[in-house]
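Request: How about a record?
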Amino acid sequence: MALVPYVENAGMGLQKFHQPLATFSFASHTIQIRQDWRQLGVAAVVWDAAVVLSTYLEMGAMELRGCSAVELGAGTGLVGIVAALLATRFQMLP
């Protein structure tokens, strides 16, 4: 369990958690994820750490070709989606 300091009216970049849709561009795809902080809490939003890790994977910092992965406890699953797209892209390369 994580302790997330959060005050709804505090602002400071937290407004993005209340947007119903988060849009990202990774692996030559546009990825849209529905978010719902009010009903589902911390597991229903895309956290900055997921964006950073997705960017890290896209930069080619890790070899994904021929790898298998299991994503556990990853909230909305952005990292798993990006990893799958990247692995598919690498499989299609000659």
